[in-house]
Amino acid sequence: EVPRLRVGIGPADKPEGDLTEFVLGRFTAAEQAKLEEALEMAERACGMWVAGRLPDAMNRFNRRLDGGANA
């Protein structure tokens, strides 16, 4: 098992098939509004990881911001 902290690429209802444009395209206004919070959470998670608290970071931060289940 490889330790990891995740940052998702968007909603569960993303388009079918080739996701290149979806993943590499510009953020929508709604996604842009959520980006600041996601980056702040990533910063806190990395701080915990560097401090040797990886399991705590994974348990606290590996979740969706909208409260849905992880993919």
Structure write-up:
By secondary structure, this protein is mostly helical. It has three helices and no strands. The two termini are 17 Å apart. The mean pLDDT is 79.
Short summary of the structure?
The protein is mostly helical and 71 residues long. Helices cover 49% and strands 0% of the residues.
Give descriptors for this structure:
0% strand; mainly alpha; single chain; 49% helix; 71 residues
If helices are DSSP runs of H or I spanning 4 or more residues, what is the number of helices? 3
- Taken from the alpha-carbon principal axes, the silhouette is globular
Helix content: 40-55%
Are there runs of 5+ residues with pLDDT below 50, and where? Answer: none
User: Whole-number radius of gyration?
Assistant: 14 Å
How far the N terminus sits from the C terminus, by CA atoms, comes to 17 Å
Count all strands and give the number.
Answer: 0
Structural class: mainly alpha
Q: What proportion strand?
A: under 5%
pLDDT averaged residue by residue: 79
The description of the largest β-sheet is: none
Question: What order do the SSEs take from the amino end to the carboxyl end, as H and E?
Answer: HHH
Helices and strands in order:
Layout: H1 20-24, H2 29-50, H3 54-61
Helix pairs in contact: 2-3
